């Protein structure tokens, strides 16, 4: 199993939820991690809490993935702080749901620009550094990236697009030594869509489970690439 200590990572949308769980798992391996949030305060508060883990190094950065210049700045700050970039986790995402008759133009753009364009910006700003390190690019898609549902026109479009985008990037970068995977979770106990995690979420995937999965991918022998991973709760309510 590959030793991950000393590697550097950037996690978009890392101040809570899945991104936070991934950052925690990487810090426990001795990695150096930068997390982003649209809120500078949220990024720094999360980094302060993650720092208590006692392993690795962590910084919090303000960056809205919908703004290419902010993403480029976050990548540069990560490189300046840690000396390079080995792992990019494109996790930042939003969920806007509603019938096509009801969903607003603003919600459509917020969903596509965050969940899809934001990932394009993230890898575009990072690709040179990842090629230098022969690193790893992981996107957090969703089972909604292959399964459509009523009220999901914007979200389905963004995640179907993200799944296809990631697989195409995998083919683009594999000969450069950059590994690319997409993780497609089902129900996860997070703050997504204004939900507050609670005891009733015990059947769901937990954020530490996704963190463990990311560690498994990073530690795998580089000759092998799990390019698309679907993840489900093992026993959802009947």
TrEMBL record:
Protein family (similarity comment): Belongs to the short-chain dehydrogenases/reductases (SDR) family.
Top-level taxon: Bacteria
Any single GO BP term: monocarboxylic acid metabolic process
UniProt xrefs under Pfam families: adh_short
SMART domains found in the cross-reference section: PKS_KR
Leader sequence segment: none
Ketoreductase domain mapped to chain residues: 7-205
Protein name: SDR family oxidoreductase
